[in-house]
Amino acid sequence: MTEGARAGDDVNVAQTGEPEAASRREPGDVLVRVRGLRKHFPIRSGMTRRRAGTVKAVDGLDFDIREGETLGLVGESGCGKSTTGRMVMRLLEPSEGTIEFGGRDLTGLSRGQLRPLRRDFQMIFQDPQSSLNPRHTVGTIVGLPFRLQKVTPEGGVKKAVQELLELVGLSPEHYNRYPHEFSGGQRQRIGIARALALRPKLVVADEPVSALDVSIQAQVVNLLDDLQSEFGLTYLIIAHDLSVVRHTSDRVAVMYLGKIVEIADREDLYTSPKHPYTVALMSAVPVPDPARRESRDRILLKGDVPSPMDPPPACRFHTRCWKAQDICKTREPPLAELTTRHQVACHFPENMPAEDGAGEAVLLGKRAPGGTGPAVAAVAAGEGAEAAAESPAETVVETPVESPAEGGADAPAEPAAGTAGKTPAEPSAETSARTSAEGDAAASVESSTGTPAETPGETPAEDSPKAPGKDTPPTSAP
């Protein structure tokens, strides 16, 4: 593969930031199984080196990696991503938990027992310059795995190393050069060649492109994809660049303060994130389209990330979450599968699909003048909503009627507001019912006191119609 062809592919990735349209691989059986993984670093102080505290770098992780798939691990700096990768490689001893590789538990094995197994899992380090010995040539560095595992490749070590250098885009003539003679991207290619020397099954890449330029990043990312397609590799890619993770990963796990808060398929997580922290991360991804950039909402989290020495109780994100409630401070949410292959650790997840037949209560706040309660208390969406829409609530307004002295003996009374076109002799059913009720109350008062009762706020009119069988004046029309 030529550098010119690779550079052309890199331009497309850098400009669009979208994953390739090619179909992804179908994952096989579980290759790596992690359960309850924890790593606590003790803090010691004083001359006696007494234990003054504990840094909970990783505090209970559960995830699986299947054969042939790529799991991306993202999160803020200091959340425990690199510590997780080093524990999977057994470069750090876990405080608790189990790490199974190919069905075999690695946590209880000694260094001697691990050595023959290390040919099946290798690591690409974050800083290519510090991961290469400056006193050794490239041929010695890349050929070291063969010597440590006592493997003699066909044709000799030198021929195998030159083939690996050509595979990662370097020249076989670089065999006798030293690391300081290469650029940053070329040094990272040397690290990739060393990791692929024994044809491992699992490669843990700890931020493999974070120290490189953007154009070189695209070259290395495309190289990792090509090598995976050619050799059927399984990747655990640790990064904080969400665009790189989307381009390379099949599934993505989001970490926050030592815990996984969400894990899902790539497209599902990027199009419909459910944990509030993931939503905030996605809003920070740069968008090349100015129209889309202006239309989306940028979520700015308040406060700093809490210290891993003293993490918040229960949900560790509740100190910065805009949806936090009392339960978030007292009960830790489990990492549960809310939808297919989508696990979230949150009491109030975002972007949840609405359940069929479930309605929300809609409160109508329209009040009558002088009243204390709403005209309609609540209408359940889906049940009674159509009836409420056909007969909207009416506001009752008392309008005084002109007296004959002011408007003349023959002047008809002015109709009340909202009653134009209605015949006064035919009151509505609502008016008749209310008039009947008021008439019964007035008759009760008259029978007890012997004095006719008057309804406050009403002005009698000669031309006003009277309800049948009642001596009290009716109320005005609504």
Total individual domains: 2
Global Rg: 37 Å
Question: What's the tally of helices?
Answer: 15
DSSP, total strands: 14
Question: Strand order across the biggest sheet?
Answer: 6-7-8-3-9-10-12-11
CATH first level of the largest domain: Alpha Beta
Strand content: 15-25%
Q: H/E element string?
A: HEEEHEEHEHHHEHEHEEHHHHEEEEHHH
InterPro entries: AAA+_ATPase, ABC_transp_ATP-bind, ABC_transporter-like_ATP-bd, ABC_transporter-like_CS, Oligopep_ABC_C, P-loop_NTPase
Domain ABC transporter: 32-282
Protein name: Dipeptide/oligopeptide/nickel ABC transporter ATP-binding protein
Region (Disordered): 1-27, 386-478
In short:
By secondary structure, the chain is α/β, with parallel strands linked by helices. It has helices at residues 3-16, 81-88, 111-114, 138-148, 157-167, 184-195, 214-231, 242-248, 266-271, 276-283, 290-295, 326-330, 385-390, 404-407, 429-449, and strands at 30-45, 50-66, 70-74, 96-101, 104-105, 121-124, 202-206, 234-238, 251-256, 259-265, 336-339, 342-344, 361-362, 379-380.
